[in-house]
Amino acid sequence: MIRYVYAHELDKHPRLVDEMFKDRARQFRDRMKWDVHVDENGWERDQYDPLGPLYIIYEREDGSHGGSGRLMPTTGRTMIGEHFSHLTDGVVISSPTIWEITRFCVSPSVRSAREAMHITTSLLLAGIDAGLRFGVEFYVAVFDEPMLRVYRSLDFAPDVMGAAGEGRKRICAGIWPCTEEVRDKMARRVAEHEQIAAAARELEFAIAA
Questions:
Q1: What letter does residue 168 receive in the DSSP assignment?
Q2: Are 134 and 205 spatial neighbours (Cβ–Cβ below 8 Å)?
Q3: Which pTM does this prediction carry?
Q4: Backbone dihedral angles phi then psi of residue 144, each to the nearest 5 degrees
Q5: Domains of the chain listed by start with CATH number
Q6: For residue range 3-54, what is the model confidence (pLDDT) as tens digits?
Q7: Is residue 74 exposed (0-12), middle (13-18) or buried (19+ Cβ within 10 Å)?
Q8: Which residues, listed in sequence order, are joined to residue 133 by a DSSP beta bridge?
């Protein structure tokens, strides 16, 4: 199931939170070899986690963390603006109707490709539903180029604004529309789409940034 959790509510979900930050370390530091900070608890957290973002978390049937992502408006500090502006030719992206999604992670404990794709699709749908709730028109994100194949397989390919690097280390900046049409296409792939939409409708805006 999908849980929408604001930063100030994380303490209500100790197991999910512990596993989310540990899974981020396993994905970004251990597998992808990013230069990220991991604390003494094994958590990967960065300077954007204290800014009050909205987390989308996929909780598996056994209560464990299956995957997650972090949403923030571009009117505040963003990764794409502070670390990846070279991918947008220095263009500043700042609008209440454009949000950034970062730290998109599927737990390394997920071994089945089918389950991994279901978690990915559910998280993307949840992001669209949250965006529609808050009047978001576009999402931006930075991602490894191999993810383009995944997005294309879901008919959810972004417009690529820029790319840099070679081989497996090549990264891209993309922008996706957040519309009812996109939502409907994604919902056809997720059996729990009505529950996700209902949870999104209950969201109140509580992002500090």
A1: G
A2: yes
A3: 0.94
A4: -70, 140
A5: 2-201 (3.40.630.30)
A6: 999 999 999 999 999 999 999 999 999 988 888 999 999 999 999 999 999 9
A7: buried
A8: none
